[in-house]
From TrEMBL:
Protein name listed in UniProt: Nucleoside diphosphate kinase regulator
Source species: Luteimonas composti
GO molecular function list: kinase activity
Domain Regulator of nucleoside diphosphate kinase N-terminal: 11-51
InterPro entries attached to this UniProt entry: GreA/GreB_C_sf (IPR036953), Rnk_N (IPR029462), Tscrpt_elong_fac_GreA/B_C (IPR001437), Tscrpt_elong_fac_GreA/B_fam (IPR023459)
Lineage per the UniProt record: Bacteria, Pseudomonadati, Pseudomonadota, Gammaproteobacteria, Lysobacterales
Domain named Transcription elongation factor GreA/GreB C-terminal: residues: 57-132
Length: 136
């Protein structure tokens, strides 16, 4: 999985202080030590701009956000909800923030894209088309 903007660099991302604290606590758990997906998420958090919850833009993907995206390669539409690992249910479109696509989507805003290699070996270019924030 690679998150990147048109210049080849990862796109800038924004994470709420609440989500950052929840994810830091999750990543501190022994369950996720030396785990490649946890390390990828930590990398995303390290480069994120962390903002106060009240300053979190409504068009940015956070935990519990429902995300609409399109695969720019196929035109296929996807609707996913980004959740904590214990809430994940791929069949219901509830994607763990620790899944490769979940950590890649975290912090993206409408219009940003990521390249993602599916477990089946397909390359998707997912562009975020809408974000529906979690109800608070």
């Amino acid at each position: 999985m690679t998150s990147q903007s048109s210049g080849g660099l990862p796109p800038p991302i924004v994470v709420s202080r609440r989500d950052a604290a929840r994810l830091d606590a999750l990543l501190d758990s022994p369950r996720w030590q030396n785990d490649a997906t946890a390390e990828a998420l930590l990398g995303e958090l390290t480069r994120a701009e962390v903002v106060d919850d009240a300053d979190m833009p409504a068009d940015v993907v956070g935990i519990q956000s429902r995300v609409e995206c399109v695969d720019e390669n196929s035109g296929e539409q996807h609707t996913l909800t980004l959740v904590l690992p214990h809430e994940a249910d791929a069949g219901a479109g509830r994607i763990s923030v620790l899944a490769p696509v979940g950590s890649a989507l975290l912090g993206l805003s409408v219009g940003q894209s990521i390249d993602w290699n599916t477990p089946q070996g397909r390359v998707l270019r997912l562009r975020v088309t809408a974000v529906h924030p979690a109800a608070t």
